[in-house]
Amino acid sequence: MRALLVVIVTAALIPSNRTQEPESRLIFPLQPKHNHGSCIIELPNGDLLATWYTGSGERSADDVQIVGSRLRKGTNTWSEPFLMADTPGFPDCNPCIIVDQRKRLWLFWPAILDNRWESALLKFRSSKDFQQRAGPPTWDQDGIVHLKPGPEFQQAVERDLRRLWEPTLRQADSEQKLRLETYLSDNTKSAADKLSVRLGWMPRVHPFLDGDRMIVPLYSDRFDFSLIALTDDGGRTWKTSAPLVGPGNVQPSIVKRRDGTLVAFFRDNGPPPNRVMVSESTDRGENWTAPRDTDVVDTGAGVEAISLKSGRWILVNNDTERGRHRLAVSVSEDEGRTWPRRRYLENDPEREESGSYSYPSIIQARNGIIHATYSYRPPRGKGTGSSIKHATFAEAWLLRP
Question: What is the pLDDT of residues 87-104, one digit of tens each?
Answer without folding.
Answer: 999 999 999 999 999 999
